[in-house]
Description:
Elements: H1 16-30, E1 34-44, E2 51-56, E3 61-66, H2 68-73, E4 83-93, E5 98-108, H3 111-127, E6 146-150, H4 155-167, E7 173-177, H5 185-199, E8 204-209, H6 223-231, E9 236-240, H7 248-252, E10 255-257, H8 260-267, H9 271-310, H10 314-354, H11 358-399, H12 402-407, E11 412-414, E12 433-437, E13 442-446
Parallel strand pairs: 3-5, 6-7, 6-8, 8-9, 9-10
Antiparallel strand pairs: 1-2, 1-4, 2-3, 4-5, 11-12, 12-13
Helix pairs in contact: 4-8, 5-6, 9-10
Amino acid sequence: xxxxxxxxxxxxxxxxxxxxxxxxxxxxxxxxxxxxxxxxxxxxxxxxxxxxxxxxxxxxxxxxxxxxxxxxxxxxxxxxxxxxxxxxxxxxxxxxxxxxxxxxxxxxxxxxxxxxxxxxxxxxxxxxxxxxxxxxxxxxxxxxxxxxxxxxxxxxxxxxxxxxxxxxxxxxxxxxxxxxxxxxxxxxxxxxxxxxxxxxxxxxxxxxxxxxxxxxxxxxxxxxxxxxxxxxxxxxxxxxxxxxxxxxxxxxxxxxxxxxxxxxxxxxxxxxxxxxxxxxxxxxxxxxxxxxxxxxxxxxxxxxxxxxxxxxxxxxxxxxxxxxxxxxxxxxxxxxxxxxxxxxxxxxxxxxxxxxxxxxxxxxxxxxxxxxxxxxxxxxxxxxxxxxxxxxxxxxxxxxxxxxxxxxxxxxxxxxxxxxxxxxxxxxxxxxxxxxxxxxxxxxxxxxxxxxxxxxxxx
Length: 459
């Protein structure tokens, strides 16, 4: 058979670009959106606003991209070392033939699992009727004593006490200190609720802590806390986190407040409003007394007219004396009642003035001024220290610089053909040209002869 009779099959030669494009289409259509968890590394944020990073575990890593439109919508901002849970689609970056994940959603790893646990426990306790409105207890109109279950060092307790002093400083407060975050915090919160219920020294309890992440607030999502709230004999008001934060304790509590300060607002009335009501009631009392006096005066006048007609004599004088006596007692009783209410009103006003936060505000302002002065002094000292370090580093750098070596009379010899630095006379022969780099300028020279270094004597 001749070579003309033999035909090679037609070859379908692909370009690299076609190969990468086909692989991308296969990956994008062949795999659904994936959930993947790992540690963020090699994070980059160029001016475009897109986010590029690698997601890795102990054995491998994969490149990821988060487009700017997605990054702006997410609550989480990736950073190196963060554990992320992603929902992403697999694709290929065609110019380099690298497959990568295009992120559609991201959250910190572990938060998703916590939310699933939250919803499962919420559904369980809801089915048991633990959150039923019929089981909620009303709050006292004016509690004799208020209990606060929270961390004694947190901002929440300071906010609560500030609001209580402002609204109704006459009501005493008992703090039941307990940790509100970390291992074992849920059990200790439940124990504090049980202790407050057993001691029965308060009319209402505030369960509170400041804001934080889902993990920070998790102690209030434990079943033991929810059951302790419902087991308490004292009504419980929850003030946990910020307005957008909801915990299992909020659903179990008799009343939920959006913040710790809001909880304090709910458990006591406004003293100023009570004073306004007292003044209003005093005015109504005075009007009622005036009407009563007017009625009695009319009756007295009517009796006088009857006596004037009947001429009862001595009996009339006795009745007149009795009426005068009753009128005096009535007026004294009215004056005494009015004076008593005026003294109570003056005492309440003095208590409010004594509890004024003006002195505390002044002390806080003075502390802020002191801290600002210390900050400015520290900043000046820090700048001077950094400037001294920069000067010392510049001096050290100049000492080891090749230019400083040249200034001491040395020269650098190079081969003009390729710029190679010459270190050995055996690299040259007579007639070769060399370039010498001096501290200032360069010199071209021709080699006339070379000499090897004499051999070194052994010691």
